[in-house]
Amino acid sequence: MTAAPRTFSRPRTGNLTDAPILNWGILGPGSIADSFVASVLGHTEQRIVAVGSRSAGKSAEFARRHGIAAAYGSPEELVVDPDVDIVYVSTPNNAHFDGAMLALRAGKHVLVEKSFAANATQALEMVEEAERRGLFIMEGMWPRFLPVMDSVQQALDAGLIGEPISLTADLGDYDAFDPTSRMYSPELGGGITLDRGVYLVALSSALIGPAASVAVAGLQAPTGVDAHLSITLGNGRGAHAQLLATMYAKTPANAFLAGTEGSIEFGSPWYLAPTVTLRASDGTVLDTLESPLRNHVDALCFEAVEAARTIAARGTTSALMPARESVKISATLDTVLRLARQSWAAAPVGTFVGY
Fold first, then answer.
1. Which residues sit opposite 172 in a β-bridge?
2. CB 336 within 8 A of CB 214
3. CA dist list (Å): 304 to 36, 119, 122, 244, 322
């Protein structure tokens, strides 16, 4: 009998323009919303019909820039607009909960920019509210929805690398110290865990499963936020992820998954990997995927299409990024921050501490 070929399967993402069309409202006209709207309008048939924030001027300028018909000076006005089917919550991390709950209580479906919530308590309340109302809610963990990630998931499901046993991944950029900036502000939900660590924890959850154990070492910024963390997650079945998140240096953004019978290597940056390589245990290349995606404007549209398809099928949670998984990821992030803060309480600010 001839062994089945160990090669990547074609992604199942389909044609972006074939997705059912929703009318979107944007809550929070910031930089990530700029990229999201440009991506959605540039690659799909989805409609952006309204934008809202606590600044009427910012909403109006955002609407002018993107050709959006309605601009509101409050979130409350946005969520009651009868033309809006779904609200994209793209406010700072500390405001995700309030925005999502406001939209859900107005009867709107919700896509929430990462991090899903400031903590697991908020995340669970958001999901339970959506479930009670029969509404869709999803975290915008955009790398999860890309075509190459679907091919990787198919490879794992088919056992092409055996049992995954080790993931190493990093994500870092240099953020110059500015105590008034979002990244360094505790009040705005700043810090590395909710900004970049969430991507790594979500990657680990996808590739080796939810975290059953957590260990942390790292550095605290002078403002008190977490700035540089080395995180080890165990899945409870023998596999571990070694993750590095930092705002003190730009890192290569590599990711490598080893299994008992092979490995998968993501080209840099892993979240927009230009190539993904499947190898045998001895390092022999078995197959290579190539992706043309290079930036947010290429990539953010896939999460919008996933939301539209799921809602059209009367689903309330995505198979690619289940809402209950986002709650588990939030709980892991809570643990990361709790362990880091416990260590910092006994060490001078800026001192490297760990376990």
1. 246
2. yes
3. 9, 24, 23, 29, 15
Q: Nearest to residue 48, comparing CAs of 63, 58, 60, 59? A: 63
Q: Give the least confident one: 43-52, 186-195, 234-243, 323-332.
A: 186-195
Counted residue by residue, the chain has a size of: 355
Residues 50 and 66: their CA atoms lie apart, in Å, by 10
pLDDT of residue 1: 46
Q: Say if residues 141 and 202 touch (Cβ distance below 8 Å).
A: yes
φ, ψ dihedrals at 217, nearest 5°:
-140, 150
Q: How far is CA 117 from CA 126, 191, 218, 345, in A?
A: 9, 14, 22, 24
- The two three-digit tokens of residue 144, written as one number: 């999860």
Distance CA 149, CA 153 (A): 6
Confidence (pTM):
0.96
Mean pLDDT of the chain: 95
pLDDT band at residue 247 using 50, 70 and 90 as cut-offs = very high
Report angle CA 127, 338, 113 to the nearest 5 degrees. 35
Q: Which fold has domain 16-143?
A: Rossmann fold (3.40.50)
Nearest to 300 by CA among 158, 122, 90: 90
CATH number of 147-292+322-344: 3.30.360.10
Span 74-87, pLDDT tens digits:
999 999 999 999 99
Residues in CB range of 47: below 8 A, 6 or more apart: 21, 22, 23, 24
Residues 44 and 38 sit within 8 Å (Cβ to Cβ): no
Q: How many Cα neighbours within 13 Å face the side chain of 18?
A: 3
Nearest to 323 by CA among 151, 131, 156: 131
CB atoms under 10 Å from CB of 298, counted, come to 18
Per domain, the residue ranges of the chain are 16-143, 147-292+322-344
Instruction: Report the candidate in 147, 146, 144, 151 with the shortest Cα–Cα distance to residue 278.
Output: 151
